[in-house]
């Protein structure tokens, strides 16, 4: 990753782990998120190895904001070789109890931000004739978890968006892939896993016998972004301890 210029969208559990992994591997990294406290915490993280990262505080729930984040990251870094999209939300309810605002929020943050950021980064990378992107899908794109209507739909849509962007930009040497984690311990799953019996139930479904950690995805993300993966595009790599085998 030495010399590569990377924008990570999302400073949550998975985004922060990827930002640290990229910085430790020698990339120059800028991270965008709405949460100023998370960005500050990430900047102060000793695991960055003194490399330091740039931050952009922005509510990314709109096309203009996503495009501005991509443009200012590219200006700050002096180009853009890598995009990691790790923004996402969930709200678990039965479909019949899901109001429009919940549907809109989940689809906007999980899927539309990927489209807006991917499109903006794709324009820059195609022009440069190189680049790699990784988006966060989920086992929910494949499995029909109850109470995950909008979330599952957003991740299924993301998988298809990744494939089409990959196909359109392959000739420009721009790769587009996704990683799909199983249940991983972050802010996104904390409350759900804290419900009585939930952690045990979720863990029982994983052949590897444990839930994921943010660090579990970093190797897969760095590989897909690396030159060693330059002929891999349009793929969804499950990082789930075997969850999708059950
Ligand atoms: N944690 C899991 O179990 C898991 C499993 C599969 C897929 N994923 C996916 O991985 C991605 C990252 O998830 P995570 O576990 O790190 O979640 P997280 O909640 O820890 O992080 C999500 C980040 O998105 C940011 N965000 C939310 N709304 C925003 C907005 N309007 N503008 C800018 N930033 C905003 C939050 O501030 C947060 O930092 C998501 O797409 C999620 O769906 C997570």
Descriptive report:
- This protein is α/β, with parallel strands linked by helices.
- It has a single domain (5-245), classed as 3-Layer(aba) Sandwich (Rossmann fold), CATH 3.40.50.
- 46% of the residues lie in helices and 15% in strands.
- Strands 3-2-1-4-5-6-7 form a seven-stranded parallel sheet, sandwiched between helices.
- The longest helix has 29 residues, at 100-128.
- The model has no long low-confidence stretch (mean pLDDT 96).
- The structure holds nicotinamide-adenine-dinucleotide (NAD).
- Nicotinamide-adenine-dinucleotide is lined by residues 10-15, 33-35, 38, 59-61, 86-89, 109-110, 136, 138, 181, 183-184, 186-189.
- One of its GO terms (biological process) is fatty acid elongation.
- This is SDR family oxidoreductase.
- Keywords: Oxidoreductase.
- InterPro entries: KR_dom, NAD(P)-bd_dom_sf, Sc_DH/Rdtase_CS, SDR_fam.
